[in-house]
Structure formats: C-alpha cells, structure tokens
Fold each of these.
Amino acid sequence: MTDTRAPWSPEAFEERLRGKSISYHIHHPFHVMMGRGELTPTQLRGWVANRFYYQISIPIKDAAILSN
C-alpha cells in the first residue's frame, strides 16, 4: 500500500512538533511545584535520590546492551 499523503509544510511540521511540548515532564505538577520551591525537603530529597539512581543506572544499562 502506498502512502499518498502530501508531506507537511515546514510551518505545519513546526506546529505539530510544538504541540507535543504539553506532554513534557516540565509541565507535570510535581516539577511545577519543584520549580516554584513548593516541595517539602522530604519530597525534594526523594526526587534527588530517584534522579541519582536513575542516572547511575544508564551506563550499567548501556554496558549490558553493548555486551550482548
């Protein structure tokens, strides 16, 4: 089956791409609260711990992929 739809114009492409920004993590209520300084110290420490372990896991995951 051949796709006969015309390609998007640069303007239409940009509009569709910018429309995806509403789902970025920066719009999540938790991140909005963090940006406003509204998190409790415990919430912020939890975010830092989660981010730390997420970041240190990336090289481990990449090494596992490359070793296979």
Note: The mean pLDDT is 92.
Amino acid sequence: KGNIQNMPRAPFQVLVFPFRRLKEGEFVYAVFKRADEGYWQAIAGGGEDDEKPIEAARREAHEEAEISPEFSYYPLDSLAYIPTYFFEERSSWPKGTYVIPNHCFAVELPKIDIVLSHEHSEFRWVAFKEGEKLLYWEDNRTALWELNERLLNGDLPQPV
C-alpha cells in the first residue's frame, strides 16, 4: 500500500483486545498505557485510505504491539461512536460527518512477547476486574465485558 504516513485517515476507529487463556474459565487481557495522555486502553487506531476495519485492526495491533497479522481476530458486537472533534483529520472527511464508528475486535495470543511502540509507555496482562478498573474509556470497558462474557460462555464468533 505504500507509505502509510501519507494515506488519508478513514472515518472509522478500531479497538483490539489481545487475550490469553490461562486455564479453564480463566483469561487475561492486555491493556496499554498511552505515552502521551497516561490513560489505559486497548490497542486503538484509525483506518487508512480504503482499509476495511479488520485490516486496520491487524495493522494497528502490529504497529502498536508487534502482534502478527496472521493471528485469528474475532469481531465483537460492541460498537461505539466517537465525536469527530477528537480527530484532526475530520476536515478531510465528508461534510456532515459528526461521529465515526469504533469497531471492536479481540485477538488470542500465545505466549509471545508484546513489543510496545512509542505510543504506549507500558502494558499489563490483567484479569477482567482489574482491566475494568484501569480502562479510561467506556467503550473499552464495554468491549472488554463482551469479550470476557463470550470467553466464559464459550461463545466467540468465527474469526475473520
């Protein structure tokens, strides 16, 4: 696709929660501390050019944590909308774009090392309750809750 830095920002956002199965009924989730703002969140970022949300999720996870795009990604039903005033690129979006969708995904990681980009100062593997307390954004907490419930109920969607 060429130089990602020069591509226009698409009017959508993605959220990715890496998770691990510890044992039957026990899971941990990776949460990331933003280097600039200091709050905790999942991997987050925007689509570029003509990317589909799943393509953006794979790219963002690779850029921010060196997670291989080859892993299975699971689409979550959680969908939030974010006001466009959070994004400098909003002036390039179609007139009348006031909110953009935030598509949520989960990715199961084996025992691999997460390597942080400059966007995050640290990450932690946490149980659901700790993650729920750490996460700054409500949409992150909702997606984490959905993922945790799906895992506890053995109800992950088909990977994409």
Note: The radius of gyration is 15 Å.
Amino acid sequence: VPDKQDLEKEARVLQALSEPVRPQIMDTLLACDLCPCVLRDVTELFDPRLSYHLNILEGAGLISSSSRKR
C-alpha cells in the first residue's frame, strides 16, 4: 500500500504531465543538447511561460536544473 508521500509525489507527476507542452519539453530535453532558444522555438513559448512549465517539471522531479542550463 503506497503511503501518503508516494501518492502526493505521483499526483505531482501526473499534474505536471497534464499540460501537453510539458511532455514535449521533456522529450526535447532528452533528445538533444540544446540552448534555451531552441527549446523556445520547439515549444513556441516565450521565456516567462517556458520558465513556468520548466519549474513545474522540475518541482515534480521530472527534470533537473542541470538539464535546463546549457
């Protein structure tokens, strides 16, 4: 039986992946080394919105800050 912390973590992951652009961001980060400008081009998001999505993915433990800084 999962404990409360496991369920909360799972909920954060599911919530983080519920926005269609976030799996796209993850796929792009996993596929290649890129600079932030390429990620902006792929997602068609401007910096504040892109940062928002990256922070949610990082908060859910799906990406690390090192995968964001190239």
Note: The chain is about 70% helix and 0% strand.
